[in-house]
Structures are given as structure tokens and as C-alpha cells.
Amino acid sequence: MANHAEILRYIDSIARDKEIDKEALIAGIEQAMSHALAKKYGVEDVEIMLDRETGEFVCNYEVSMEEQGRIFAMSVKQAIISVVRTAERDVIYDEYEQKLGEIVNGHIQRFEGDTVIVNLARNLEGILPRSEKVRSETYNVGERIRALVYEVKKVGPRVKVILSRTHRDLVRALFELEVPEIADGTIMIRRIEREPGYRTKLAVDSSDDKVDCVGACVGVRGNRIKSIIDELNGERIDIIRWNNEPMTLIANALKPAEVGDITLDPAAKKALVIVSEDQQSLAIGRKGQNVRLASKLTGWDIDIMTRAELEQSVEEDEAAIDGGAATAAGDAAAGEADAATATDEAPAGDAPEGEAAGGESAGDEPANDEQANGEPAKQQADATAAPADATTEPGATDETDGRTTDGQT
Q: What pTM was computed for the model?
């Protein structure tokens, strides 16, 4: 085994190279050696301490470290490697956890499917997944890339750093790097809305009336905003002045379009903006980007119309109201007619007792007629049946009139 002074130098060198805490490394070595001795001798109360001054290991049992053999040395070596990796992982995790929301630099190392693997400092690999990539951007191996630290987590003995190029905080971080007034708090970024690769709207405000928040973000001859646009590969950025008044904020958010009248509906959180015909397409933007981002930035549902469209909409609404009123009047008239018809038919149905009485009397009369005429009817039936009998039995004597028939009636 190396002498005690060399052990201390090795420990100092490892701690310095791996940027890990020296005391944590020594504690890991002591624990690894104690565990190896306990496993070898079958005891549990083994304790080994390293003297920080001399570098000598002190054990509560009388054992010689030089006589432990190769298996003991390999076991301690593997344990020390594991301790070093764990300590290094914790250091990296703590470092990048503090960088959440910040920009890091790296070089594209390789591709794994749609995922871009970025080589960061200290041989750490950052991951740029497909969901955090800008569709309009292209990535090539070896290129430099700047991305936002979106998420950091421990995965086994390694640290997984998730990067993002689409998050709105990437724009915020770029402005903090390029505009000193934002970094020192003189200018505040109130809100950011972004469609990655296409357009971003940024609302800023100044705590100092002497500082122009919009002008400071743009820079002299646009040098500050130009560097940010270049980093975002040509993405358009609209910088607007924040205002607590909703109408002023909406008008600012729709820039560069010039708006006219603005009508607010606070209950529904809707805003109707009237623009001239030559400003309508500019206010709406390509595929509705401008008005969509302005709605998200202000928190109001913005509807853009020209004066002619508004008048046409009002006329259509009035026509619909008139049509509805006419339909309602027709329904009311039909209801009144039905009610009048029901009223006219009401007397016939209001005397059920009289009809019942009349019906009963009429029913009694035919019964009496049948009783009165029952006997003649019977005689007639007999008279009708008699010729049939005569036809059946020729030469028979008719009992009715006393005549003799010869088979003819």
C-alpha cells in the first residue's frame, strides 16, 4: 500500500479533478473499507477512520491493511469508484438545478432518433427532445448551440439535463444577457407570449421614468434586438410597452397595426377592436398570429372588425331579431285562433248529462217499438218462410189463406 502521505495527495487530487467535496470523499472511503472488513471477518461493528494529518487508517480491530489481499483491495476500489461517481453526480445535479431557466452553451454531439444529444461542460450530455425543438431550425453535428435548461433529474449514477429551444423563458434569458437594464431590474419583463420559430410578443415596463424600456431593449440602431433575433434564427420579436389600462394595452399589443375604437366587455373578457380596411390584415397577422398572441398577452379575447363589417353584423342581428319577433307574433296569433276554436266547441261538450238523458230516452223508444211490433214482425217472418216450405213440399195446404198449391207460390 502507498505511504500515508501519498494517500492524502491522491484524495486531494481526486476531489480537485472531480470537483467534489474532500470530506465526502474521505467519508466514502472509510465506509467502503469498513464494509469490506466486516464482510470478510463476519462482524458488523467494524469502524475505520482516516487520520487527516498523517493519512493513516485506524481500525477498532487489530488488523493490518497491507495483509488484506487482492480481493479486499478490489472490493474497496469498486466501492470508492461508486462513491466518487455518486458524489460527482450530486455536485453536477446541484450545479444544474441552480441553472434552471438559464442558458447553457454546448456542441451537438450526435442524434438519437429525433433527439439531439448536446455535449455540455465536464462531459455532461444534455438532451434536446423533439418536443423542445423548433420546427424551422436545422441541427448539425459539431455546431454550437445555446439552449435553456428546462429540467434536471437524477437517473441512476448519471444526471439527465433536459434542454429547450421553444420555451418562452429562452427569450427572457436572452434579453437578460443582452440588456443590462433588465439584468439589474430597471426594466421589467411583464409578460411573454411566443410561437417558436415565427413570432414573439414581449411586454416590458420601466421602474425609472427616465429610461425608455422599449428603446433600451432595441438598442442603438437595433444592435441588441438584432443579436437576439439572430440567435432565434430570424424569429420576429414585437416589443410593446406595458400599461395597466386594458384599452391602451390592447392597442399596444396589436402593433404595428393602428387601431380605432375599442369596446370592452369585462364580464365576458372580450374586446371588439375597429380598424380600417388597410390595417385589418396587419392587425390579424399571418394565419392570425398577431391577434392570437395579442389575446394571450393581454388576457382579453380580441375580435377585429372593420366599420363596414360591424354595420353589416348589426343589420344581420336586427334582421334576425325582427324575424324572431315576426315568428313569435305568428305563433301568438295561431295560439289565439286555436283558443277561439276551442271556445266555440266548448258548449257541445259542456252538457254531457243532457245528451246522456236524451240518448237514454231515444234508446227506450226503439225498444218499445220493437216490443210493439214484435208480433207482426214474427208473422211476416212466418209468411216469408211459408213459400219456402211450399216449394219443398208440393201439394201442401197453405195454413194462412187455406189455398192449395201445386209447387208454385
A: 0.68
User: How many CB atoms sit inside 10 A of residue 110's CB?
Assistant: 11
DSSP states of 34-100 as a string? Answer: HHHHHHHHT-S---EEE-TTT--EEESS---GGGS-HHHHHHHHHHHHHHHHHHHHHHHHHHHHTTT
7, pLDDT greater than 50:
yes
Say how far apart CA 237 and CA 229 lie, in whole Å.
7
What's the rounded mean pLDDT across residues 81-99?
A: 89
What three-state secondary structure class fits 204? strand
pLDDT of residue 394: 38
In eight-state DSSP terms, residue 159 is: E
Tell me where in the chain the CATH 3.30.1480.10 domain(s) lie: 4-96
**Homologous superfamily of the 100-164 domain (CATH):** Nucleic acid-binding proteins (2.40.50.140)
Q: Give the integer Cα–Cα distance in Å for 134 and 156.
A: 30
- Tell me the mean pLDDT in the region 104-133: 92
Residue type, 351: A
DSSP per position, 213-259: HHHHHH-GGGHHHHHHHHHTTS-EEEEEE--SSHHHHHHHHTTTS--
Cis amide leading into 366 (omega within 30)? no
Distance from C-alpha of 72 to C-alpha of 64, rounded to nearest angstrom: 12
Assigned CATH topology for domain 4-96: N Utilization Substance Protein A; Chain:P; domain 4 (3.30.1480)
